[in-house]
Amino acid sequence: QVQLVESGGGLVQAGGSLRLSCAASGRTFSSLAMGWFRQAPGEERELVAVIRKLGDTSYIEAIKGRFTISRDNAKSALYLQMNNLKPEDTAVYFCNAALSAGKTFDSWGQGTQVTVSS
Q1: Given 23, 56, 92, 97, which is the most exposed site by the fewest CB atoms within 10 A?
Q2: Run means of pLDDT, 10 residues per run, the chain, 118 residues
């Protein structure tokens, strides 16, 4: 059973920065594509950034140039550096596997709240 623990969220003003961390355990990490997801109030959870096992990355248009996903396979850790934050980035952020056909691990962590004030 995989365990995912997200941390690093908080309250920041627009234009500020945060760095999210995700610790994964219970499953081989280095061979999997991993992603950051977010869920805003009243919205569905969406995948916003992916990093594949060889390190190539993908982002949704809304965060390109502002967010950077990275991973440390030795630590089974995933990161999301978020710069120039906007109020519309306010959401609970989760990490999980980002596999083909939208598949993820069945279990999710508690997420970490990011709130951006204008």
Answers
A1: 56
A2: 94 98 87 95 96 95 98 95 98 94 91 98
